[in-house]
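Researcher: Last one for today. Full complex below.
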Amino acid sequence: MSDTGLDMAKVTLQSVADEVGVSRMTVSNAFSRPDQLSKDLRERILATAERLGYSGPDPAARALARGRTGSVGLLLNGPLSEAFEDDVSAEFVAAVADELTRRGLALTVLTPPQDDGFLPARDVAVDGALVYTCDPASAGVAWLGRRKLPVVAVDQDLGTDVTTIGVDDLSGARAGAQHLLDLGHRRIGVLALTEQFALDPPNRDRLLGWRETLAGAGVEPVVARTTLLPRSAALEAATELLESSDVTAVLCFDDVFARAVIAAAAALGRSVPDDLSVVGYDDSRVATAGVPALTTVRQDVTTKGHLAAGALADLLGGRAASSHTLPTELVVRDSTGPVPTP
Amino acid sequence: MSDTGLDMAKVTLQSVADEVGVSRMTVSNAFSRPDQLSKDLRERILATAERLGYSGPDPAARALARGRTGSVGLLLNGPLSEAFEDDVSAEFVAAVADELTRRGLALTVLTPPQDDGFLPARDVAVDGALVYTCDPASAGVAWLGRRKLPVVAVDQDLGTDVTTIGVDDLSGARAGAQHLLDLGHRRIGVLALTEQFALDPPNRDRLLGWRETLAGAGVEPVVARTTLLPRSAALEAATELLESSDVTAVLCFDDVFARAVIAAAAALGRSVPDDLSVVGYDDSRVATAGVPALTTVRQDVTTKGHLAAGALADLLGGRAASSHTLPTELVVRDSTGPVPTP
DNA sequence: CTGAAAGCGCTAACAG
DNA sequence: CTGTTAGCGCTTTCAG
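Model: Here's the assembly. Have a good evening.
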């Protein structure tokens, strides 16, 4: 509807240059380096471009010529549902995107390949990538390496030469476990992710932290494992844990699992924190959204996202980027209490 | 660590060709059109490429030569936090990304510009875009049009010539309102989005549907308005609504608002559904995650995402794409009941 | 099945 | 301030 006519021949920098009667380079400068030409000429060029329906330098061509695409990848492994439908991941992604935009970069989601020939981590043009919730041995990570793209790892161990943004889950987990010990609990269960995540830093470190601290008091936890999806899995695992053991407290991989434990307890006629204490992790929205409010270990996901995006942007800008380990903090609320006296 | 040596001169199709002793084109074919050369030669080429550390055709160069980047944009307006931290949006994005991957496309988030020169909708290389939760008059939408990119609108009115995937919110809202009327309610409140979203199809149609149906029974609703963020806003608005009126039921823009109304009611000593009936919208996770389970209007967000991504992929593939209006369904649970008898 | 020619649309670098 | 010279790395014809 808004075509100037039938000149559907693609409008390029050259067409505009010809029309104005200057060289292609001058038009390029008019768009990309305003200070390189007289204000007057620039306006004349811009006006002509507008009239011709030229929408600015073609991003793909510019990417090739400049060697930068202006967008960075976010490499994810599991199904996207896991990444986007989980509050914590979603908050992370939002923070990343926010910070990237601020730095003049867009975010491209590098999904795990689903069929034959298309492998995002290999085939999509990006300047660098954030590696999040990925199996470090995955094909995606390998491709990024082959492409020699700048990479920032988040909650991942990709090697000491890779800038890494992580969380001090070891301390966080220890604090949670110590809290239960302090309350007198000695029969303690933990609800972690399945063995498949044995090497995933968050799962690994939380488990390790719990175990270390409990071991210090001579306590061997009852370990139950489950998955993020389907959501019903956690409830089942929690029910099974409560039915098959006599734990008085449970340490959970995240707040969602903690809610599942509370729900399972309720279904079994046990109330939290009177009959059972439950500790979550993350201090996500669900921690305070329900009753009782969760005792949990807080991590600052938004800062994690900002730092990760910022580090990658620094790398792309040729600046140095340093790794960070963010602190955690135990937040005591209403889901934990003294060990029940029988 | 894995460099073959000091040959840091960039490895290109040409280097590989030279090394193998064939033309550049043959190497290109080895990667992009396996059936165009002998299996034997192909393997020799691939092996040499591997040895040289060649990671396949450069995506940016390929994008320019082919005229396709292999990634599509998702244009969002508000802060990303709104898009990613809301269950419904997150589910939509996950569904979109899943379907796109299946079709051999990646997803690039086109965020609203935050500063000076960088305008994702104008500057990022994509083959097409999905327009979601955007002001139709926004600069982003205009740029996509200028670039003549194929576009699919989701829950938006971008004109009849734009493929649109939407939801029959009018019917959904009517069903919710009728449900309350059937239960005998006559003093009814509605909690919608602020005037800023007056033209946003979901907000507009839900409001319209409620009004129409209530008007049919001579009921004029008490209208309260609030925003998605900060989350506390809805609670305040709900409290205000309940305190300043004597409604016996509230129709809400979404399930999150419904939960806020229930929380506000509880704080005022009113229980749901005995003293107050509440109808949500979306049938999202929070609808069934809390107590009482919400009576709500269900929409299939995942299908919406699949359809939108599929339609855009079709457009990019030169196929026709048709618009769809997805149905809604009233789901009656425990947050609504007969009008209380004083 | 393989190769040569001709760009895709733009931008660095430097010359005028 | 403006224009020239060279590509960025790949793919599309179309010949051989």
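Chain A is about 45% helix and 15% strand. Chain A touches chain B through 56 residues (CB under 8 Å).
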